[in-house]
Each structure stands twice: as structure tokens, then as C-alpha cells.
Amino acid sequence: MTLTLPLVAADSLLVPGYAHASDAAMDLRAAKSVVVEPLGRALVPCGISIAIPEGYAGLVIPRSGLAAKHGVTVLNGPGLIDSGYRGEVCVSLANLDSESSFTVTVGDRIAQLMIVAAPKVNVAVVDSLDATDRGTGGFGSSGVK
């Protein structure tokens, strides 16, 4: 299935795209140069506005290479873009490196955008939930290794 995503871009360089045909998310690019100081954060504009269709949402997620090589990630990852939002897409980047600053230049791939189905959910208050194998086991309940 292919979904059409209406988009307004300040520059054709900033239009998100897939690096590979099988990718699940599109790369978002920086529209402004920014230096993210050690243990700092910065809101980086992407120079695009999008119209996500109703029933879908956009998730802004980190790029694994930036995280692994530079300690740079999406601060509120995943960030959520609701279908009714029409403003500029921006990415809140965090530099988790305690010693080195990270420089973002115009056109750099800084995050990824994944469009996902977001159905409306009706909440039903009940007295109990059905039993499962996992039950109430939470953080670390399946082991740490």
C-alpha cells in the first residue's frame, strides 16, 4: 500500500526520502545549521510542512548512525506529529556526548519520519483484565540478559 503525503518544502533539498526501497521511514533533513553542545539540546527546523491523512500519525525517530557514532538522538523520541498539525516539522535533538559538540549543517539527515496507522480507540472501563502468560510482569521480568 502506498499513501500520498502532501508536503510543502522551503527547498527541494529538504524533501524527505527513503534511502532504500525497503526502508520503513524517510530521512528528515536540517533546514538550519546548528551546534548541539555536549549534553545539550537544540530544536532543528526541517523546512517542511506536511498534511498527514486522518487515521495516521507521524513518528519522528532517531537515526541509528547518529546515535551510535555521535551520541545524538531525538530528545522526545519518538516525537509525534498528529494528522491535524500543519506547522513546520522540527526535530528536538539531544547530544548525549559529554565532551564533544555536534554540528548540524543544512541538508544533513538528522532523524527519520515514519507514517503509521493511528486508529481511534474507545476506552471501556472493566473490573478485571483477561489472563496472559506474562501477567503483570513488567520491567526486567523476562530477565536482564
TrEMBL record:
It is an enzyme of class 3 (hydrolase). Residues 16-143 form the dUTPase-like domain. GO terms for biological process: dUMP biosynthetic process; dUTP catabolic process. It holds the Pfam family dUTPase. InterPro entries: dUTPase, dUTPase-like, dUTPase-like_sf, dUTPase_trimeric. Its cofactor is Mg(2+). Keywords: Hydrolase, Magnesium, Metal-binding, Nucleotide metabolism. Substrate binds at residues 63-65, 76, 80-82. GO terms for molecular function: dUTP diphosphatase activity; magnesium ion binding. It catalyses: dUTP + H2O = dUMP + diphosphate + H(+). PANTHER family: DEOXYURIDINE 5'-TRIPHOSPHATE NUCLEOTIDOHYDROLASE. This enzyme is involved in nucleotide metabolism: it produces dUMP, the immediate precursor of thymidine nucleotides and it decreases the intracellular concentration of dUTP so that uracil cannot be incorporated into DNA. This is Deoxyuridine 5'-triphosphate nucleotidohydrolase.
